[in-house]
Structure formats: structure tokens, C-alpha cells
Amino acid sequence: MPKSPIQEMLPRWAGRIRPYPAGKPIEEVERELGIKAIKLASNENPYGPSPKAIESLRGGLDHVNLYPDSNGLDLARKLAQLHGLDPAEIILGAGSTDLIELAARTFLSPGDEGLVSEASFLIYQIAVQESGAGLALIPTRGMAIDLTAIRQAVTARTKLIYLANPNNPTGTLFTIAEFDRFLDGLPA
User: Quick one: which of 10, 23, 64, 120 has the most CB atoms within 10 Å?
Assistant: First the structure.
């Protein structure tokens, strides 16, 4: 099949990007299997929303016609106060995928490199690829993120390393002491 004019305009690296394969909707799984399901893979809460969240949503229904504060200033101030930070140190996003992609867009360019454990959230790989940077997939050790192998894979081109703790989808984790050793072993 010949390439379309749009495909001709894309940089070569863009052809390596594959869309995130979202899981089946829970309703479809329940219909197929004839059971009530809990979708743990999407970090969904089987107990429903918090009563406090429902109350907050109800309290804001009179204002859904207005554009929200895209900077989340009130939330950033409250989080900063709670954690002893300056509000300028708080970055908000529409979920973790938004923040993962923001990090890649901010720090990576073609010629750079991002490191990702091979058994981690697929969005890490996609975010690195979307930036045009090189992607280095680091093998796991016993289905756990291998911090030693990641540290050894760092090169002058490495600008971003994604680490999940606990790791999704394996559920493994590393300790604070292991993370401190990892950070201490990185080049300046």
C-alpha cells in the first residue's frame, strides 16, 4: 500500500510509535463471561467513589458551565501547604498519562534517550517514542525493575528514566535504600 501524503511528512521515528492498546471495557468483559468483574489492571476502585468526592462533585454542579482553572491554583496551594512546598513546585495533570507525556515532551528531543524497564506501564515507552528520542528497554530481574541494570545503561544521551514503584503491571517494588543507592550511583 502506498504511503499517504501525511505519512510522507512524518519524521522517520514517528513510524515506530504504536498506539496504547487499551483493555476491554468492564461491561464487555462482564457480558462475555457472565460475571460481575473488578478491573484491577486499570487501577479502578471496586468500592466506588469516595463519599467525600461525591459530595464535592455535587457542590460544584452549579458551575459546570464555566471553564475550570487550568492551572489548578487552589489545589496546588493546598498540596504545597500540606507537603511544605512552594506551589510552583507542584505539577498537576489530567491523570498519570498526562504527566508521563509532559515529562517526555519537556526533557527529550531527537538524539536523546529515555530508559524504561521492559515490564513497565506501556505509556512510558510510547511517551519516549513520541518525543523522537531513542528508547532503551532494560530487562527486569525476577519481574522487578533492575535498578543496577538501569544505572549501568545510562549514557551521555540519557535525559529521562521512568521508574514505577510499585511497578505496574508486575506489582514489584524497590526500597527507599535501593532507590538512594541508585541515585548515588548516577553520573552528575
Answer: 120
